[in-house]
Amino acid sequence: MRIERGACSPGEAEQALAALDDGEGLYFGVDAGIAGLHPLQATLVTRPALRISVFEDGVGVRALTAFGRALFDSDVLRDWRSNLRRGGGASAIEQLRGFLHSFEASPDVLLLGALRFDAHRLTVIRARANDREELGVFYFPERMLRRDAHGQWRFVHLAIDGVDAGTDPAPAMNGHGAAAIHPGDDFPPGGYAQMVARALTILRERPLVSLTLSQSYRRRVSVPPSQAFARLRAANPAPASFFLNDGRGLRLFGASPDLQLVVSRGEVQALPVCGTVARRPGAQGEAESLRELFNEEVDAAALAVCSDALRNDLAPLCEPGSLRLLDRRRPMSLATVVHAVDRLAGRLRRGCDAWDAIAATAAPVMLTGTPRDEALRAIAELEASPRDWYGGMVVQVAADGDALVGTLLRAAAVRGDVAEVRTGGDLLADSSPEREEAESRLKTRSLWRAFGLEQAQAAHSTSPDSAPASVRLLAESDPFSAALIDTLAALGIRCADDARVCVLAGAAPPPAGLPVVAIGDSAYRLLATCGEVEPVPAEHGRVLHCRRDDTGERFTAARYATHRLLRAPAGWQIVASELNGDPVALFSPLAACLLYRPDSLLCDEVARQLLREAVTYFVARAAVNR
């Protein structure tokens, strides 16, 4: 068997990836992550030669090309073929291991596949098993595309003398064997929180340290899966991105934060992830999201439990004393969320390999609980539907022993015109049911956006057609007037002396007869005419942690003030408050007061948009009253 290699363009790779809508194959890429922890690379099987179906009692093989048929019948696989059987105590893991042992060590001779959540059953050898339920699929490629850590693509082609590489693949089986699914969620709103509440009782009553639960959401979709995957990868690159067309009606794709295992040169690493907080816009927003994440003691404890349980799974496979914690709660920022990551590493014992690590960490503790067997019983009792692919693995194992394993999370399973997205989270005895439900729904957001079902939260349009026309800026002696003008311009607001709405900053008095949007100390002075305000020592550049009272959105703002509000004026609406309850944005029919500086770099987009909303409101009123 020859291995041919050559250059490939990114455009060719994207075209080949889009072809997975119609052709059987698999992509597995480490597209993002933490430098030094997640090895950037990708493999795309564009022409699978053999399809290896995985069952509890062994594997089944189907040749998909002439090369595949020739390889299966060749002397290279003669010994393996003679031992290939189903039932009678056969082990799928042993058969997969034996397949790769038939070849000389090479990083470009590999199996690429995916295993369902129930693949944890592969660790139990039975005399008889359910021989009809496929627990996973692996492909041996005739042709694949590979991307290195520098983003360069190349093709790898395997060939056998005398076999025509242009022979058409065997007929595809697309559309056969895929069970129909219907739109609808496992639970109505609030139902998942109720399940979590029941689970917390179980955690107190049974010998469980932790428990991970999940739920499925199902929607009709019209966007082709490859197009949705391209959007997902562009908006949310992740440590484990994958796209599977199993040839039987399933298109499974996702961008998972969990690179479950990295096996290289006899060392195994595990990278558990726990804790999810929405990533707020901008550098300050990201910093605040990370602050919230790392101040969350429940998430910190949950990650510690995951790491300790993974150590327990991997310790029997590693040299004594070699398994250690290299990184603790490393921050990982993705497009829509931030996570915390631990890293464990150990040296594999003589006689142990990647397949042993895969078997030991199937249905990982991050997705089940501790201890695993008790957690699996609770999952079966509580969850409304089977997990199917959720919590399974995308697996790449090379003939040289190196391997990558990603956890199948943040994934959409598309059958026909219905996409199923399943999410969940790790629970401890003091978890909040309401917070768990909110986190579960948050984790679906990037996938529904990829299908065009939920628009990305972006800054409001600032095009001339939709923006307020102009405001009169009064900023006498204001030290940040230039920054305020720039902020207004970025919001699509022009400054003009004849405008009918005023933005007030600095020491200037409010004009008579015009609606006013006042910021900072100007806002306190305006409130003092109808409310109660007192002077305080100057507080400049202080970060405020706030929440909009109408939408519940959290945001950060910057306080520059020498006053504080003791009593809000009667008849004013409080639009936003600090998390301690102190008002930071108040509206009346003729004025708006923002008790922060929306032009500060410490303010996020929500804080700035409150300025725009106030101006828009008064500009609209002025236009009606003309």
Basic shape: elongated
What is the CA-based Rg, rounded?
Answer: 29 Å
- Give the low-pLDDT segments: 170-177, 455-468
Outline the biggest β-sheet: 20 strands, antiparallel
Helix segment tally: 15
Mean pLDDT across residues: 87
Question: Which secondary-structure class do the elements indicate?
Answer: alpha+beta
Question: Which short descriptors sum up this protein?
Answer:
alpha+beta; 20-stranded antiparallel sheet; 15 helices; 26% helix; elongated
Notes on the structure:
The protein is elongated and about 95 Å long. About 4% of the residues have low confidence. It is 26% helix and 33% strand. It contains 15 helices and 29 strands. The strands form 2 sheets. The chain has a 20-stranded antiparallel sheet that branches.
Describe the structure concisely for a colleague:
The chain has 626 residues and is of the alpha+beta class. The protein has 15 helices and 29 strands. The termini are far apart.
